[in-house]
Specification:
By secondary structure, the chain is mainly beta. Helices cover 7% and strands 56% of the residues. It has 7 helices and 57 strands. The protein is elongated and about 120 Å long.
Amino acid sequence: MKSPAPAVTRLAVALALSLAMPLVAARGVPAGFEDLVEGQTEQLEVRLFGRSTGLVPVRVTLEHVQLEAPAEALQALQLPAEAQVALLPALSQPLPRNSHLACRYGGASAGCGYIDPPEEPTAVRALYDEGEGAVRLFVARQWIPGEPAAERYHQVSANAENAFLHQHTLNVSGGRGYQSLAAQGMGALGVFQRGHLSADWTFSQQHYRGGRANRDFQLDNAYYRHDLGQQHYLQAGRMDRRNLSSPQGGTFSFSMLPMDRFQGLRLGTTQAYVDAAAAVQATPLTVLLARDARVDAFDGERLLQTFYLQAGINQLDTRRFPLGNYTITLRIYEDGVLVRSEDAPFDKGGDWTDSSVQWFLQGGRRNERRSDRFDDELAAMGGVRVPVSRNVAMTAGLADLGGFSYGELRLDLRHVFATQEIRATFSGMHGSDGSRGQQHQLSYRRRASWNVYHQRMRGRACQFEDDARDRLGCADSLSASMALPVAGGNAYLAYTRRQTWRAGTVQPGLGDDPLAGLDTLLPPWIPQPTRVPQLSRTWQASYSRSQRWGEFSVSSRIGVWQQTSGGGLRDGRDRGIYFNFSLNRLQRGDRGSSQRRYGLDVRQPQHTRPDVNYSAGQTLRQEYEDQYREVSGELRGNNNERYSATLSGQLQNRIGQTGATVSRYQHQGGNEVAYSATHSSGLAIGTRGLYWGAGVGADAGLAVQVDGTDDLDLTGVAAELQVGGLRRQRLKLGERRLLPISAYQSHRAEVQDASALDSIAAVRVSGVGGARPLFLSPGRLVRMPVPIEVTYTFIGNAHDIAGAPLRGARILNAPVPGTGSNGGFVADFPRRETTLYLLQDDRLLHCPLQVRERRSVVMLVGTVQCEPLAVAQLPADIRHQARVTRLLQEQALIAATPQTAAAGGAQ
């Protein structure tokens, strides 16, 4: 929590106190220091062992602190009702400050900041920490609240409202002979207390040289969901299987059951509200690269993410991939040319330890993404997951598609030791049409990491059906990898083997047929279909190491590879050795950072000349107020006279995230230019209007509204907001912003001060203390107002017309200390004042405030000349204040009213 007073003001007050204390002891209160001795009200934070009231008014004197609203403070601290009754009398009295026990500005010593709690249940002790602007309370241990017991289920935030939220992303790319446009979006609309409408869509369009074009629009999901309590749900509409492997639908990781998308009803158990500590986990995706390449990851025809990777063994970052169990297609591009595609199974879901049985039932008509052949077939599916023990679970599923039935059985095992972990999965599928499949995976992690995966698929594609109902294909695959830390670096070893079969034909009468010579005399033979095997095997081993020296970091990698393929158009063997070296220098400045990169890649394939690639690049990053900006450039070349230059930029602000890249390639055959651009943002429409913000993939939101100010010259950042794992958000005065967050997940939102260094006033967040927990269902929005408090600090000297200092004058604009013996003043105002109003004895004066110099948030006005002022000319908003009225009446400048006269007589 930031201090509620500017640093300069606290320093001035501290100096005044140090000068005033000896005078008070010797001869009473000197003129001008009456307010310091009598005390003044400050906005302070009241804390009780981790709990906070936020900023509340506290009367502070030289010896005591006193809460002006003790009952509200006790309630804000969430103390039991009997504790509030017992402590209220003591907390209503002035309490000793005990400031000498506070920790001093980062130099904490043992025992500071603490007082032994009293034994009496009705006693209260206080410790006023001026450095933090907080009052710490110490009460009897029986009243100190402990941590609340964790509930099994989350509760949706009580102040959430139904709203429409939509996240969207636009991608544009092109080059010589083609242009591509892709857009995707996801929307959620809250309905009733526990229901919502959800839809996500994709659109793609490509234009090629010669006028050929493709265009496709898919409405992947469009359904209404209603949560039946915290354990069951009902969905109706168009939906796919992804939710079945997510907190929304449970832990069903069916990877071989054929139904992908349908239109109908789904009923089952949900894990969305379970308060589980385990994070959502995903199976690793590893790609083996012989050269630096671009890798596009697809779910069917939908592009999930693009990676730019170095040669070697690379594990893809799948944090942005959608939940579910599906097959990922990896398309590998080298120098902009597609060299191969790989299919890999992917499973991203929860790893909950909940002991309850999970189940689901669904039925309707099939609605596939990639084919119309089986659309409108009647389809039904059901599944059950039974935890046998904490580390063993069994899952079974059945599906009926157009009269054909399929069943899948899966066994998950996990055992965690003190320093190691073992996971294993065994699953099998069988269909009534003869299709069958097996998948097995084993992983072991200790100091080293071992992974083995085996898959065997025999679908209808093995009987030469190009568009089979089961979607299993016809393939065998095996992959194994090991990672081991060695000598300050990491060693990797990986092997993959994949065999598929493509359709072919055999002409009878060829080969060893004894009737081969009579082909011209016999009727023509019908070609017989057959399977042609295609086999590929890849070995790869590498060792990498990284070191840092101050601003410099050096990374190196050396490795060998061997790839063998047969049965295809590129039969043969490829082997070689490679070496990578990169040097990076990161420099940080006041307004940003700069990173320079130099790289060298040497590759020696078998029987060919070496391939040497070199590169140099630089990236500039800057965070300014509420924006993040990045510009990057890179030059690349090799010994085959191929060169490229790339320039890219990225901007993140309150309206979204935008990036663009332009590349130029130069080679012997000519040159070409490629470009790409992307923009993602989100919006929410609630009861208070439209909110806009950045973010992708979130179906709930936090709507932030920062208070504005009447001062048009006061601009800039006013607060910082941190929500979950999002980048820290810097918010301006009067700004409205949407922070998209994931539904059915627990978040914490925390607001802090963030006044700009070049601001003309100190801007502080008021009334918002501690972190705020959030848990939202889809289509729900929480509004978070951010109240602010503005303080303008003026320092100067007040003189009358004759040039004499106005010593001991009261300042009427605000309840602040009066002028000193030389007429000096330090005044904090909640608004930007242009005139200083003073009362010296029975003289009323006004002084123009003209800023001569500004240092940080302090405005220096120098010597101001004050002229007499009639009472009638005093602004009404100042004259009608009770404090000012009392001072004017004491000097007989205005007549006392009957109410004030009676009050004075009673005193």
